[in-house]
Amino acid sequence: MAANSLQPAQHHHSFTESDVETENTKLDSHASPPQKPYSSWNRLHHKASHKLVNNFLPAYFVNVMATGISAAICYHFPYPAAWLRVVGLILWALGIFFFLCGTVLMVISASTVRGNLVKFHTDPKVAPFMGCFAMGYNSMVNMLYFVTGPSFIIGIFVLWWVSVFLCVYTAVVIFYFTFLVKTSTKKHFSPENFHATLLLPIVALTVTSSAGQLFAMDLPHRNLQVLTVVVSYVLWANAMAMSFIVLSLIFYKYLVHKIPNTTMVFTTFIPIGFLGQGAFSILLCGNNLHQLVPAMAAKLAGLEFTHNMGQTLSEAATSIATVLMVVCSLTGLFLISFGYFNTCIAVASVLTKVLTKNPNPEHVCTSGPFEGMIRFNKGFWAMTFPLGTMAISNSELGKMYGMETFKAVGAVYGVATVVVTVGCCLGFLYHLARDVVECFTEEAH
User: Fold this and answer.
1) Looking at residue 353, what is its pLDDT?
2) Is residue 163 pLDDT above 90, yes or no?
3) For the chain, how far is it from start to end, CA to CA, in angstroms?
4) Does the pLDDT value for residue 40 go beyond 50?
5) Helix axes of 153-168 and 200-215: crossing angle, nearest 10 degrees
6) Integer Cα distance of 6 and 266 in angstroms
7) pLDDT for 251-276, tens place per residue?
């Protein structure tokens, strides 16, 4: 799930006829018999292994995130339809395929290519995208819960704890070794190098938090429900605190150095992700507390403040639950509102690259039906997950309070997410086909 605008620049090398001729010349100089040129299949294998193994990047998991959240949106669309659930299942299957392929490639790359495992943990341009692995995994688990429901709830609970480990590992261990540890080989960051990708290890916390809140009330025991809600809230609280710190640095960069260049402009969508996902998590938390507190009214009898409320224990529990739900809802609305603002900033940033008087022909189409548009690159994937988080948070708020406006806004965000995801999948297939054709046409020439 990689994004060109999200990954460091790499120099890809493929075997061409000139390479073969050079190699044959060297062989001739050593009086060796001439070698046959590399076949098309060999060139394809060389290019694939070079790009997918030697230069594997955790950013490749962004397509898992995109298909996963698009599947969830279709499966639980604000205005449901049977065919949308089918589309959701198809996207989920595609996401599982991407996730399994990406995981296998990551393991092979980390175990066979020297230095890659360290790079995945310490390189500021690569390591933040390990958060995509955790979020992609969680997206697949969420859809599994939607499909199986309470019938597989213990299995979902176990898989969720794996997600907790992954998100804490990326948000604490990888973040620490990437950005905080001082080593002889690391250089200090300059303000212009603060990109929104720094948020990725932290956003994983909000994704796991919302997943826990999503299934908590289906757990069979009250203690497990309370444990899941509390752990999920702790993850959410840490994510919010850390994200706003990083976001302040990003906006400082925007104010001083202005919006990113064309290759990085789609990263302006990333801050929307933690706002939308954070809102979704805290809204679910409020809903869960509204159910948990009255059910645990007997345990409130030992709290001193409940004796001074002038109410019966049951009434006091109901009042506390209502207050908690309202506070969580207002917090969620606050995050959603800031998400609207960041959506406007991100869309405006992209439009400035499209509507500029002197576009860069390297990044903008100069002819054809897409003339004037930004050339498709893997950075387009950066739009999908953030827009999807706004879709599910708006839809949840609308469902909780029966407000059609938020359901409609959630539907708009949801349609945008699915359209962009499908477009990115088509672009991915186009570039894949082009690379394959190039390998076979080189021999013909």
Assistant:
1) 83
2) yes
3) 33
4) yes
5) 160
6) 8
7) 988 888 888 888 888 999 999 999 99
Q: Which residue has the tokens 């980390």?
A: 110
For 295, residues 6+ apart whose C-beta sits below 8 A from its C-beta are: 222
Other beta carbons within 10 Å of 334 = 14
Q: Could you report the per-residue pLDDT of 286-323, keeping only the tens digit for each?
A: 999 999 988 877 676 666 656 556 667 677 788 889 99
Enter the tokens of residue 133: 């692995």
79: region left, alpha or beta (phi > 0 left; psi from -120 to 50 alpha): beta
Q: Which residue has the tokens 């997918």?
A: 52
Q: What Cα–Cα distance (Å) separates residue 313 from each residue in 101, 319, 326, 375? A: 55, 10, 20, 63
The two structure tokens encoding residue 149: 């429901």
Please state the φ and ψ torsions of residue 127, each to the nearest 5 degrees.
-55, -40
CATH architecture of 39-444: Alpha/alpha barrel (1.50)
Cα gap 123→175, rounded to integer Å: 10
* Residue 68 near residue 95, CB atoms below 8 Å: yes
CB burial readout 283-320, b (16+ within 10 A) else e: bbbbbbbbebbbeebeebeeeeebeeeeeeeeebbbeb
Contact 250, 275 (CB under 8 A): no
Query: Could you tell me the pLDDT band of residue 235, with boundaries at 50, 70 and 90?
Result: very high
